[in-house]
Amino acid sequence: MFSITRRLLSKNWKFLPNRERIVFKNKKEAFFDFVKVSGANILWQIGLAVLVLEFAFPTPDIVYDLKRLISPDFDLFCKSGNLVDFEMDFENKLRSIRREEIRSLEQYTNAKSPEAKFGGII
Fold first, then answer.
1. Rg of the chain's alpha carbons, rounded to an integer?
2. What b-and-e string marks burial along 56-95, b requiring 16 or more CB atoms within 10 Å of the CB?
3. Listed residue (37, 68, 31) closest to 45, CA to CA
4. pLDDT value at residue 113
5. 56-59 CB contacts, 8 Å cutoff, 24+ apart
6. Can you tell me the distance from the alpha carbon of 111 to that of 105, in angstroms, rounded to the nearest whole number?
7. To the nearest whole number, what is the mean pLDDT of the chain?
C-alpha cells in the first residue's frame, strides 16, 4: 500500500505528465478551452431554439380553432361576419343566467340533509 502511494507521489511517474498544472498552462490554452465550451453551449442553445420554434408554437389554424372554442363572440363573428347586430349585454346576461343555474344545481345536489348538518334526528 505504501509503495503505491509513493509511486503516485513521485516526480517521474510517466502517466501523469501534467499533474503539477492545476488550471491551464498558459492563457492561450485557457482561451481555446473557453471558446470550445462556449461554442458547444451556443450551438446547444441554438438547436433547442430551433426545436421550440419548429414544434412548440401552434400553427395559425390551431390558434383559430382554439379562439373559436374559447370565445363565443369570436365564434359568432366567424359564423356571421360583420353582418349581424350583436348585443353584448344580452349575451353576457344569458351566460350569467346559465352559470347561476349550474351553480344552484350543484348546491342542491351537494346539500346535506338536516340530520347530516346537526348530527342527529331533528
1. 36
2. eeeeeeeeeeeeeeeeeeeeeeeeeeeeeeeeeeeeeeee
3. 37
4. 72
5. none
6. 10
7. 77
| DSSP at 80 | H
Q: Which residue carries 420554434 as its cell?
A: 53
DSSP 58: P
For residue range 50-79, list pLDDT tens digits in order: 998 888 888 889 889 999 999 887 888 888
Q: How far is CA 2 from CA 5, 8, 14, 109, in A?
A: 5, 10, 19, 82
In Å, how far are 21, 34, 48, 51 from 24, measured between CA atoms?
6, 11, 31, 36
Q: Confidence band (pLDDT; 50, 70, 90) for 38? A: very high
Q: What is the pTM of this model?
A: 0.35
Q: Which residue has the higher pLDDT, 3 or 71?
A: 71
* pLDDT in the model for residue 10: 59
Rounded to whole angstroms, how far apart are CA atoms 80 and 75? 9
Contact 74, 68 (CB under 8 A): yes
